[in-house]
Amino acid sequence: MNPLMDSSAIKDTFVGIDLGTTYCSVAVFQNGKAKVVEFNGKNAIPSMVFYGIPNQYGYQAQSNRNIPEYKKNVIYDSKRMLVKSYKDLETEIPHWTFDVESDKDGNPLILIDNGKNLSKIKPCEVSASILNYIRDTCQTKYLT
What we know:
Blueprint: E1 14-19, E2 23-30, E3 33-36, E4 44-46, E5 49-50, E6 56-57, H1 59-64, E7 74-75, H2 78-81, H3 86-89, E8 99-102, E9 108-113, E10 118-121, H4 123-142
Antiparallel strand pairs: 1-2, 2-3, 2-4, 5-6, 5-7, 8-9, 9-10
């Protein structure tokens, strides 16, 4: 059989990530087979991060969204903010539970207050946090 056509001949591990606006899905191709990665028994993970001590991702972050003292630090819709100016987002900002301000160039900055200090992060940093969490989860489950 042609090794290019025989998936069992592939010895490397590959990870495919769908970084969605509201949910992320992940699949791993290993030992010639594809498998959807589960997060807490589900095939997708909410695209949100709770910036606290410690940071939490996905379903853990989502559970903090309804707790008044935590909801401002549960960040979602970060992908929706990518490549948009603060002005482009002005109609959406009032509907979010977290605070957003404009930087000097008119780009959105998300305000995070963990009780000790105030930080400002870019939407791409939230997406990067989600991707890092997914990578770490996949490495733990499939590469160790």
